[in-house]
Amino acid sequence: MNCERIEAMISGYVDGELTQQEAQRVRLHLEDCAACRRLHNELQALKADVAALDWPRDDAALLETLEQDLFARASAGIGWFLLLLGAALLLILGIVEFVTAENTPWHEKLGIALLWLAPLALLASVIRQRLIAYRTDKYRKVKL
Amino acid sequence: MKDILDGALCLARQITGSREDSRDILQTAMVKTLEQRGAPRPDEAGFKPWFYRVVHNQAIDVLRARRRFVDQAELPEPASEAQEPGRLLGQDERRRLLHQALSRLTAEQREIICLKDFHDFSYADIATILAIGKGNVMVRLHRARQALKRELLALGATVGGDDEL
User: What does the pLDDT look like over A98-120, one tens digit per residue?
Assistant: First the structure.
């Protein structure tokens, strides 16, 4: 194998990312070729030097805040989910009991159902309008 | 989790060379991660490369917006003139020159070197972060290391390695 073909593989060899067969081919070439052996040693030294570099890390407070924010948001999400689940269960149970109640006349049931449905329809309408307004708001990313 | 955030912040700084930009990038990446449906959870194995990819994309956006692909990384100290070739250098001096040589590379070259040699990602993870093929990682990394070697030599530093295997 010539040096040109093996050159990029030397980086893979230094990183331990070659297959066993490829690594064997590189190893045999390095034993015979002084120029590639020098390159291998240079890359190995560079790798070790970069690994040992110090990069400024003075953002401990920021990381603390971000981590707390992450957990706060995650727990808030779980809280909302549980709240909605509980409300949905109660609502379903209430509807079932209301519909199956035998001692309430049908016209009373109809009146109560309409009283409940009216605000729910109004709420759905407001939510829909808010969603449309949010999606079409060009300035929603502007922070004041 | 803190280690991942710390490493990601460091990567953003290595790419952009700016402390302020890297803080903004990390905060934006966090928000995107929280908003993204289907994103891996922080305790899953694939989270780290996934999060670094978000940081990488965000950093590239910042560089594009500011039109400074060839930027100067923040150095611990300002660089002095080139050293006499072949001179034996102390550890501190060698580190300073290495920082300087890295800062002379393009953001892409610096990033791939840091991802492998500093953050110790595998080629498969680097391919995920940079959204390129695994075979491409080896070629790009090799070119970047050769560029780093050239910069170090231009600064008068020696690049180690005896003739022994």
Answer: 888 888 888 888 888 899 899 99
Domains in chain A: boundaries: 3-51, 82-137
Closest CB to B161: pick one of A41, A52, A57. A41
CB contact under 8 A, B95 and A53: yes
CA pair distance B93, B90, nearest whole angstrom: 5
**pTM for this entry:** 0.66
Q: What is the CATH number of domain B89-157?
A: 1.10.10.10
Q: What does the alpha-carbon distance between residue A30 and residue B131 come to, in Å, rounded to a whole number?
A: 32
pLDDT digits (tens, 9 = 90+) for A20-50: 999 999 999 999 899 999 999 999 999 998 9
* In chain B, domain spans: 1-72, 89-157
pLDDT band (50, 70, 90) for residue B111 = very high
Instruction: Using alpha carbons, select from A41, A46, A23 the residue that is nearest to residue B165.
Output: A41
Contact (CB, 8 A) for B11 and B56: yes
ipTM: 0.75
Q: What are the chain A neighbours of B123 within 8 Å (beta carbons)?
A: 12, 15, 17
* Fold held by B1-72: Rna Polymerase Sigma Factor; Chain: A (1.10.1740)
Q: Which two tokens stand for residue A47?
A: 């790798």
Determine contact, residues B105/B71, Cβ cutoff 8 Å: no
Distance between CA atoms of residues A3 and B94, nearest Å: 29
